[in-house]
Amino acid sequence: MTKKPIIGISGSIIKDQGGIFPGYQRAYVNNDYIRAVNNNGGVALILPTSPAETAKQIIASIDGLILSGGQDVNPFNYGEEIQQKCGAIFPERDDFEFALLEAAETKKIPILGICRGAQIINVYRGGKLYQDISYRAEHTLRHFQLQDPPISTHKIEIAENSLLDRIIQKDSLVVNSFHHQLVKSVPESLKITGTTSDGVVEVLEDPSLEFFLGVQFHPEMLIDSVKSINKIFRKMIEVSANN
């Protein structure tokens, strides 16, 4: 039996809202991430938020890295103070994920950032964020949908011959949307390869690497409703297996 590649998925912490341990902290990721990896040929491994110095050892044990969604990125990481509409931050998680990225890039394994994960990639490489959608001057669509996660609500245009274009083989996708922060500026090392009609950045990649992709939407929530989305995970896992 061929060994399946291990895909690490960065986790977060959730506090119990009730039960016998209200306020108790639990490490977790949403199960859709697990299904997206396992259903497409990989072995999912949750990476709980840990001290940054453990990242190199953790990356040594995996074949691909997914940075999952969650809290707002700490504005200090891109040289700003927290504004009124910035949401909850988790500085320890930022530090851990920056360290994961550094180690993963050194090892040259595939990297996929989803929602917050795409923003972490952008900030790690030197980009900035809008701390809330309302701080963007241009007309902006709703990017935090009220519908169920598997329902697609806005279209993204995909750049020709980009990584996502080669994977999906379509020039556009209708996807879901659950973010109140937006990419504001992008460093030279990253290329914008997907946007919505309002000009909001939805896809980032590093064209110099075989698989280095950030998506602002949630493909893991669409694996049942938008079948072509599975190609993103299959391609990542294929590249992970060949490293």
Order of helices and strands: EEEHEHEHEHEEHEEEEEH
Which value, in Å, is the CA radius of gyration? Answer: 17 Å
Overall shape: it is: globular
Distance between the termini: 18 Å
What is the average of the pLDDT values?
Answer: 96
Structure characteristics:
9-stranded mixed beta sheet; two-stranded antiparallel ribbon; 243 residues
Summarize the structure in words.
It is a single chain. The protein is α/β, with parallel strands linked by helices and 243 residues long. The chain has 6 helices and 13 strands. It has helices at residues 31-38, 55-60, 91-107, 116-124, 163-168, 230-242; strands at residues 6-10, 12-15, 25-28, 43-47, 64-67, 111-114, 128-130, 154-158, 172-175, 182-185, 191-196, 201-205, 212-215. Strands 4-1-5-6-13-12-11-8-9 form a 9-stranded mixed beta sheet, with helices on both faces. Helix 3 links the parallel strand 5 (64-67) and strand 6.
